[in-house]
What we know:
The chain has about 270 residues and is α/β, with parallel strands linked by helices. It has eight helices and twelve strands. The strands form three sheets. It has a five-stranded mixed beta sheet, with helices on both faces. It has a five-stranded mixed beta sheet with strand order 10-9-11-8-12. Strands 5-6 form a two-stranded antiparallel ribbon. Bound molecules: zinc ion.
Amino acid sequence: MRKLQKKFFGIFFFIVLCSGCATVHHDTVPGIIVDKRESAPAANTFYSLPDQGRERPFDRRTITHQVAPGETLWRLAKIYDVSPQAIIAENNLKNDQDLHIGQTLRISQAASPRDVVQLYPSSKWEYIVIHHSATDEGSSLDFNKAHLQKGWDQGVGYHFVIDNGTKTKRDGQIEATPRWIKQLDGAHCKASEMNRRAIGICLVGNFNISEPTIRQMQSLVDLVSALRQYYRIPFKNIIGHGHVEGAATDCPGKQFPWKEFLHRLIK
Ligand SMILES: [Zn+2]
């Protein structure tokens, strides 16, 4: 059944919990199938149900992939449903550490990509703060460069970036950044100490001019729902950058559809 789902619904929102669970167990939460099984390092795996907001899956094909901050062979193998060894062999890598940010890889027999998001047990996360990039284009790789230039030594300041189909990324693609993977403070909202307390999610786009895409909104709803439930974050703590006390900004933009977003979250 799992194989069948994988085959027909290639664009799963794919979440792995790192806590050690050794039971095989099925559970459901709204919009998400929870599937826990014995495999390392994936203890618990969540697959969201595909819906109209998601990109249609494609057949396996050869793709090129530019390595983004925080991406490992394990992660790329999960994203494209191939083995790490196949990526190593095809790209003449010395070992599984032989990757660098910005490197271009060729991957044969790549399945339609899935978003891979790990959830780490933590009591740190009390808020989710939503941003826009205020740029037409971008990706985690771009923001990493820009933020390193600002002198932020951990690079991209957000925990997640939701792409808009520019800079080789899929529309609605969710990129987890190293700050998320290492569970570090963000560098996205100094006011009210949100860098320490809040998960920062940035949608690529300028929402003073246009709205997020349909696929970005679907990914945002999926991601925030999963984070909210796992970290038990109350709805009132899911806010825009401009809502934070002491933050003088209109981020994530005047056109960001708050009403629709909150309605879909609560549903
Ligand atoms: Zn912002």
